[in-house]
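ligand=2-phosphoglycolic acid
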Amino acid sequence: MNPTIIANWKMQLGLGESSQLARQMVEWTQQAMPSVSLIICPSYIALQSVGHELHGSIVMLGAQDVFWAERGAFTGEESPLTIRETGGSAVIIGHSERRQMGETNDQIGRKALAALTHGLMPIICVGESADERTRGQHEMAVQKQLTTIFRSTPPPNQGQIVYVAYEPIWAVGTGEPADPDEAEAIRVLIHRTLIDLYPAELVDRSFRMLYGGSVDANNISNYVQPGRYQGSLIGTASQKFDTFTKLIESVAPAAITQKETSL
Ligand code: PGA
């Protein structure tokens, strides 16, 4: 299975910059043919223009958040229907930068349900704070997030994919990634927790586990390996063409080599 690389452009790029980087990525994927699944998540307002650039390419479009209702008096929120209209097929839910502004596990669960209902692949972020890690409560924190979020979520249907991204808050945007073995221990815990909630066969078929938090070209292979994490959620390193393509090349060396030898 190809690894999944998800770009979270946050609020870092303007409209022109987003379209330009999306166009560069499309051109690059057409030449390099990396053996990865790629999803780019620009800001809401850039969804349509980036969607236009990505149309017809292998690069998928995702949003950075979604509201649980389809329509209504919800100022500033975005409907899953509108995200679908832009060509979006995935959505980040419960990113720590939103949790820090007050988003709760219950709200994240409602958003996950809305995403699944409307055919969007949820990319659900979990992860402990620095304080929870210091007090040795990281496992409990992640488990609680998962059980609350998935408590009211029906099992994904055949063909639906749910991403669970382990992103320790202290590793996001800090340049201090988690220790690979510690991150792996949490992956095992996430897998075990999901198996307590859903049939094992369903978990293996429908869930993909990602690591995120200060991932770059030099460290991604510590996390994304067969039998370990199946992909990564990337912030900083996804926001520039050079760092992003270098990172992808480091998890998809086979396709690049193939292309080079065929030249
Ligand atoms: P980072 O961000 O790669 O800059 O640490 C990751 C994320 O926010 O998902």
